[in-house]
Design a protein that fits this description.
The protein has 18 helices and 14 strands. The protein has 549 residues and is of the alpha/beta class.
Amino acid sequence: MPRMSRRTLLQSALAVGSAAAVPTLLTGCSTGSGGGDTSNAGKKLAPWPTYKAASGAKPDLAPTDGGVQPGYTSYPSDLTSSVARTPGDGTTIRVMSVSFGVPPKGRADNQYWRAVEKALGVKIEYTVIPTDDYLKKMATVMADDPDSLPDIINMFSGFVVPREAQFVQRRAEDLTPHLSGDAVLDYPNLANIPTHAWRDMGRNGGKLYGIPLERPLPGSTLWLNQEKFSGAGMQEGWTSDDFTTVAGKITQGKTYALGAGIGSLYGNAVHSAAHNAPTGWAVDKNGTFSPNFRDDRFRAAIDFQAQLRKKGLYHPDSASMATPQLQTYYLNGTVASMQNGFGAYSTLYPDSKGLLTPVPALPYSVDGTPGGIVAARRSFGYTILKKAKKERIQLLLRVLDYLAAPFGTKEWELVHYGLEGTHFTRGKDGSPEYTKLGEVENITNLPFRYLAEGPQVLFVPGRPEAVRAVHAWQTKAVPLAIRDASYGLQSPTNTTDGTTLKAIMDDAITSVVAGRSSLTDFDSAVKKWRGQGGDRIAEEYGKEYAANS
């Protein structure tokens, strides 16, 4: 995967860290999106798009049907083409997406921008939204005149936008006729998006309104400093007691075994999964939904984290540390671990070279029961299209089909690395390596990847050992993944009130781990959450689940 310099990594991380602080800003705001029945219950359900794998480079490490990704220990030497003709007609399209990078150079001064435009056959007006501005910007966009909407909009999964589903149903093009069933075969790269991504994106009122951004199965991951943890006695098959003992040996002076960033609840996702608590929502055999924090195992995970914090094993700023600072502390050895998405491997391995060896942790067991890992939503948001005539929608879909080109194609290389000799050169193994210009003009700062993208693969330029390591970890960890049963389901209450309800529980969890409150206070917060809408969400998910089963 493309990577940035360490400096750019920290700049990008700043946006992520800022986002964690603002999810509650727009709760209850009017978006002007109107009403609408977004439920799938009682509706005729559009068939999922037919999956047809695209031909491409053969992986060095095989994927599995269970979710282990294909691995490439070297860059394909013979790139293929996945698009037969230029998709555009020379017209201008307006696009908008979230960004984790720094503001891009303008089109006139940006060779990467113009190169992608040329390949797509369109002129692009790109609105890039930093994550810390995403909610405010979306509120404005949703309230605007429909005619002023961008042609292509990335709906980012990192926040619950109030009345998002209603807005999409009211303002976006119904893509069912274009993509449902075999219709998607007119767009081969979109047909290459696996069904699990469409399912986790979900339907809206029984119809398809978006194109998902496929992501790997592993989600939040505890990234360890291998040298420190192995040196302190970490072994495969460790228990929660072993974890505590190893963390205690690592924590000395101003070195802490555990680091966490603001909004991560002291890395709660990893520890609750290790305790086999549900990830988000669980559903029983009768179709009844329950949130993770009503499960005794989740409660035990919070208590376990509180004991780790009480022993001084967390960095003292873990409740308020910005993501860039956490990244810096991890790379300089101040903290020996941090929770991050699994996809962080693509920057962690290159940026830690010569400093440490990152390794994803296997879960510890609790009371003799092997732990689990967090299963991510397989759709990192989705892309919608402004309502338009059929011919215009087909053009936009052709553009997205190009951007969704798979790894090992000429289209993928252009979109992800730019122009050879301008934005990248080739390493000894043929892998693209960014030039100085490429570190400024790139897919991070001008994020075409958040409009459409092909299935994710395991690849780190020039680091075959890293690819082997994460592939081997996935082989062991993927069967332990705990999936959120609500993925792909609609809940009107969650759409309108979910951000406020989430804040109630996030505050309660953080307070218990930090030692500011007790588990009794946590139980009171659960009761408040249920009364203010949580129980309604559970009922709505139950109806949706029955309709989609």
